[in-house]
Amino acid sequence: MAGQQPSPPDAPPHKTRPTLHGSFGMCASTHWLASATAQSVLERGGNAFDAATAGAFVLHVAEPHLNGPGGDLVAVLATAAGSSPLVLAGQGHAPRGATIEHFRAEGLDHVPGAGALAAAVPGAVDSWLWLLAQFGTWEIADILAYAIHYAERGVPVVPQLARVLATVEDLFRTHWPTSYALWMPEGRAPRPHTTLLNPAYARTLRRLGAAGAGESRTGRIEAARRAWRTGFVADAVADFAAVPHRHSSGGDHAGVITAADFTDFVPSLEPAVTARFRGTTVAKAGLWSQGPVLLQALTMLDHFDDERIDPSTAEGVHTITEALKLAMADREAYYGHLDPADAEVVLRRLLSPRYSKERAGLIGTAASAAFKPGDIGVRPYIPPLVTARPALRADGVGEPTVQQTGDTRGDTCHIDVVDRWGNIISATPSGGWLQSSPAVPELGFALGTRLQMTWLDPAAPSRLAPGRRPRTTLTPALLLRDGVPVAALGTPGGDQQDQWQLLYLVRTLALGMDPQEAIDAPAFHTTAVPSSFWPRTWTPGGLVIEERAGGTVVDELRERGHDVTVSGPWSQGRLSVVTRDPDSGVLRAAANPRGAQGYAAGR
Fold first, then answer.
1. What's the CA gap between 218 and 329, in Å, rounded?
2. Looking at the whole model, is its pTM more than 0.85?
3. d(CA 67, CA 46)
4. How far is C-alpha 263 from the chain's CA centre?
5. Hey, where are the domains in the chain?
6. Beta sheet of 576-580, edge-to-edge order
């Protein structure tokens, strides 16, 4: 098995590692343990869906500050049988008691960024198990064995995790004692490179894996799902969340999630939404995600020649940034969990050739500081616009910014797998961070905070309402040529996910870079969009760019009117990708070197 290693000292500065090549199977993710786990499953005869599921449960243990069992996921996949791209909708909905009226009665004018009131029904675990039953081949106990091993034997504390835990140490000690006991068993936040265990989660996984003894493989998986949905997990979560605890609003509240809410969530497969760029089809989740942002931006940029959109030049950075601003404005105005008929109308208009040409025509030579949703014949929602300067994260790799209250902008994980048969999946798990709400002690994990992306405004397309999915930032991608899948990719990063993916697609599809070269190239993103996370600030004209882009590029961007913040040389993006050539069967993989966590593996 080949894995990515750092390049030698004399490696060219534009590429830190090789793009892996092989023909058996490829995996790439945001943590080396997940990549190694997924590749191990492939080596032992599992398919891409077995491998991704096993890797995802390891991510719960290896990156608990970035995702957890109480969170959610979105995946885009295609099977070797030749299916059209499908979206696994693992985003949980708002509980029955999560009404605007309840939050107002609690004295809140927004959904808090931390605490059980912000929890959607957990969708990640049930969705992974459902995927395993539908498309996998392995036994559930074998899938969970990897995560159980790491939860019982420990994982290394990466520097980013140590920083997050140090930041919330006082919060945990003072207000969230169950989290303090779980994550700081020695009485203080663990230091980098020490070992962190989670025996409570290992016990939870063992109980799930042992469910349905004597039944068929599918029966055992369904028994585990019942234990999650109607058994000990749902009961423990509901009992614990009902006890008032500190929220990021500064007050103590009880959550509204109940055991009955768990039964309301049903994983589902949906047709992907697609658009074409430079002859390649890009597949995304629908308007309940931010995925169509990437599709809108690509359809705009397809009206420009390669030179005009080259991200290594100031003109290219400018053009891409302005396209993203327009797409993101439409996100705020029109995206949300709409009725299917309404969603179809909105998507058709947003992605129509006429509209994309019209929007591309608004991109001039100077930076725009305006919020400009387009006219698609549907009344736009204009959110409150709170101006703020962009906050650069000290760790420089897009990890959560956590305040003493537990309020966090959050971050995410990602995993991609392709196998030798042609099954392929791109999955972005998130939510349920250890800093999102107090840990349920007997389960070893916390609830998520995805409801903070909803508005307490009945007019908003992403409004809070029982049974509605919050609009999520999770947005994996699948690429196809002539209807055949050729790549799976994605990245953590909240509102930056589609922005960083856009850079990768421009560099590979328009400029011909190989995957690792495109990932390593200097990255940037606009902050001229209301954040999906509380307090939802934006910076009109804001642009954050890695210093490797060069002083000449930065100076020209400022001359064009961009409010530029220069970040560290390797500070943005955690993208990973796997690819497959349908003609030759050659597989490739690459992963982000920033932060020294993401790796690809394969052969």
1. 44
2. yes
3. 24
4. 24
5. 18-267+409-453
6. 20-22, 587-591, 576-580, 484-490, 477-481, 280-284, 273-277
